[in-house]
Amino acid sequence: MPEPISTIAAIGFIAGGTMLTNLNRRNSSVSDSGNYLCAQATHYKSYSTAPVSLNTNRYSALVELDAMLEELMEDGWDGDQAPAITHQTIENVQMFLAALPADIPDPEFAPEPHEGAISLEWYGGYRQVVSVSIHESQRLAFAALQGTDVSNGAYKFDEDHIPLTVLSSIREITATLV
Amino acid sequence: MASEVVAEVVAEVSAFERLARFLRQSSYVAKSNGRIKYNAFLPAPDHDTSVFRVDGLNANDIETLAKEHVKERSKNGAAMFTASLVNKAKLVIQSKEPPPRHANIRGWSMNDDPELKRSERNTAAMILSEDSKWLNWVAA
Q1: How remote is the C-alpha of B110 from its chain's centroid?
Q2: Are residues A42 and A65 both part of a single domain?
Q3: Mutation for testing the B interface, residue in A137, A148, A152, A176 having most B CBs under 10 Å
C-alpha cells in the first residue's frame, strides 16, 4: 500500500515547490541569500522531476528477517561468544529497509558474530557481492567484492538517506546477475 | 573413522590443503543459490576463525569430525575451501591442536573504528567465501 500523505502537507509542498521553481526560472539575484534560495530551488526541481515510488513493499524481506532473528536473541547463538542481536540493531535494519529505493532487490540477511551486527547482502555473478552491516550506531559498515577488487568504508545513515556510494554498488552488483 | 586419520597432518598448513569451516547457522547458506555467505567465516569477538584441515578425508569423515569436535549446531554442513584463499585475504592460518586437525585463521582487522573494523573483516571474509563450496551433510 502507498504510504498516506496528509492533504495539507501535500498542498503546502506543491505550493512551496511552485514558488521555488518560479524563483529558479528567473534568478537575477546578486546577494548571498538570493543565491542560496536559487540553489534550493534548483535542488527542489531536481527532486520534483525525478520519478519516485512510495510503494516500496519490503514485506518478504521483513518476514525473512523475523525468521532469522528467532535464533539470535540470546548471547552465544553461534555456539561460541557472539552477543545477542539488540532491538536497536533490528530497528536500524528496518529503517534501512524502508529507505531502500524500490528498484533495489530485497537483500539476504545474515548475523555477524562480532558485536551482534546484521548484514544485508546482495549477490551478483561470480565474485560479485556487496554488504551493508548494521549495528546499534547510525553508521553503516560497507563492504564489496567485485572480481578481484575489494572496497569498504563506514558511512553515516540518517534514517531516510542511504549514501549514494552504497546504492551505486548494490545496483552495479545486482546488475551482473542479468 | 575420522579419528584414525586425524593425527597424520604436519604442523605447517600448506597453501594447497583443503579446509572445512563447520556451519552453525542455516542462514550462512544463501537460499537462492547455495552460496556460502561470508559471515560464516567471521570470528566471534576476540577470537580467531576455527577451521579443520581435511586433506585425505571423505565427506563422511568430515561429518564425523564435526560431530566429535564441534560443540553444537554443526548440522548445517561445512564450507570447503583451500588454504591459499587465506593468503589472498591477507590473513594467516596456524595449526592449533587439540582437537586434532584443528587450525585457526588469524590476522583479522583490529581497526579502532568499529564500523571500519567490520567492513575490513567483511571484505576479507568475502574472499574466503566466494571460492568456497558447501558440503551439505544431508545431500552427501
Answers
A1: 20
A2: no
A3: A152
Do residue A44 and residue A66 come from a single domain? Answer: no
Q: How many degrees, rounded to 5, is the angle at CA B43 between CA B19 and CA A162? A: 120
Q: pTM of the full predicted structure?
A: 0.74
State the complex-level ipTM.
0.81
Whether residue A80 sits in one domain with residue A34: no
How far apart are the C-alpha atoms of B131 and B84, rounded to whole Å?
Answer: 11
| Amino acid at site B102 | H
Shared domain for A150 and A79, answered yes or no, is yes
Residues A168 and A112 in one domain: yes
Residues A85 and A162 grouped into a single domain: yes
**A172 in the same domain as A109:** yes
pLDDT of A144 above 90: yes
The H or E element containing residue B111 is: none
In total, how many domains does chain A have? 2
For residue B56, which of B23, B16, B11 has the smallest C-alpha distance?
B16
Q: Is residue A54 in a domain?
A: no
Range of the domain at A110: 59-177
Contacts of B128 (CB under 8 A, 6+ apart): B38, B41, B81, B85, B86, B89, B91, B105
B35 contact residues in A (CB cutoff 8 A): 123
Q: Which of A136-140, B3-7, B86-90, B121-125 has the lowest mean pLDDT?
A: B3-7
3-state DSSP assignment of residue A98: helix
**CB-CB neighbors (< 8 A) of B109 in chain A:** none
Spatial distance between the Cα atoms of A68 and B25, rounded to a whole number of angstroms = 9
The CA distance from A135 to A141, in Å, is 9
* Position A121 in a domain: yes
Burial B81-112 (b: 16+ CB within 10 A, else e): bbbebbeebebebeeeeeebbbbbbebbbeee
One domain, residues A91 and A149: yes
